[in-house]
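Annual report, structural modelling task.

Input specification for the copper (II) ion complex:
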Amino acid sequence: MKTKLKIAAGVLAVTAITVGLFAFGNKDANDPTKIKVEGEMVAELTPPPFVPKPVGNRAATKLIVNMEIKEQEGEMADGVKYTYWTFGGSVPGSFIRTRIGDEVQFHLKNHPDNKLPHNIDLHAVTGPGGGATSSLVAPGHEKVFNFKCLNPGLYVYHCATAPVGMHIANGMYGLILVEPEGGLPPVDKEYYIMQGDFYTKGAYGEQGSQPFDMEKAVKEQPDYVVFNGKVGSLTGDKAITAKKGETVRIYMGNGGPNIVSSFHVIGEIFDKVHIEGGSLINKDVQTTLVPAGGSAIVEFKVDVPGTFILVDHSIFRAFNKGALGMLKVEGEQDKTIYSGTVQEGIYLPEGGTIQKMPKENGDGKAAAAKSLPEKIKAGKEIYGRTCFACHQSEGQGIPNAFPPLAKSDFLNADPKRAINAVLHGLTGEITVNGKKYNSVMTSQNLTDEEISNVLTYVYNSWGNNKTEVTAAMVKAGRSTPAKKTKDIHE
Ligand code: CU
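The model returned the following structure:
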């Protein structure tokens, strides 16, 4: 495509010389290599989910980009620490916004506290290694290289220092946008999101500092698939927002290193998609494929209020590995477009419980070593990972779907029944505090100690009867065959 464009431009130039006309600059408008730059400016860089201001009508310029690499510890999920390698201190790295014809002078600094050399390959670059061959930089040093933006589009950049996969897997990627002449059409809200897959020694949710796992990375078996570097980067009070009637544009990239994204917004349809971040626009799209090392620009008008869930529609990744974000739209209902009672909390992260590798059943010794307050503290953490989505933060449950755990007559009447439900699951109609519920609770893959802790937390919270559940009680429950609800009632 690029080659053809250059050949076409060459023919045009030859024609112009032959004819001896077109002395007025305009003839070069189609040849980006001929665009003259005016002045010089320092590029605004932003961390996700934000983007710098649009280029608008500004002329092509000499654009100075100052990017510093930082190796720093962050949080992959609650209680899970991970050492990220970053462009500019965030994952994904700082967003760079340019226009066609810009001559970028790229300054890549490697922070003196870092341990490793790094470089940068920008897919927007026409030149060897996308800049990687000119930018290998040791800690405490800086490298400078220059390139001209020849093709409009949304491009991934990443580190390309060996082991390349490991540098990318640790978060070394970001997006650079090259806007066309005059800029992209204005919209109301613009956001920056990148998906990435992460490989940790421990399984999803395993607490503490988690080192990178090369073997899982080579096998392409991520523990985490997330937006913007961590679980929950775009949920709750970190959700992106818009008002009803606004048009939202998302610059969506995929750093990989391995996993392709089936990007989808639950409850919305993309009015426009710049396929693969290029100039071809598709309309009325439900799910768009974002390749590893690729991107898409999606745009949609939000017509009704609510919480819209951003996912990788390879759906276990969304609910169990972290690839779930939220767009909160405020405004008046429009019943001609959508009506119905709206129950919040239908789409919430479910955590890694079901994908955790089965552990040896606890033997109760560790549990005996914990004091009651310690068990409650540990149990609260497990509750946040495992039970919270259905039973909610204060044990209030979800009306008509999931029964409350707070002041629950069902729980307080019989701890064995509670242990049984956690161990073996619970299906069919039950009555809790006078209300009937008929849904499914799956069995939870937790150790005896974890179950004793989480149930002790529940029993010691929200007005329950302060039962202390021991690991030995849970162990006894394991040998009891799974009961049907009917039996449990009796
Ligand atoms: Cu690197």
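The pocket of copper (II) ion is lined by residues 85, 118, 159, 161, 167, 172 (CB under 6 Å).
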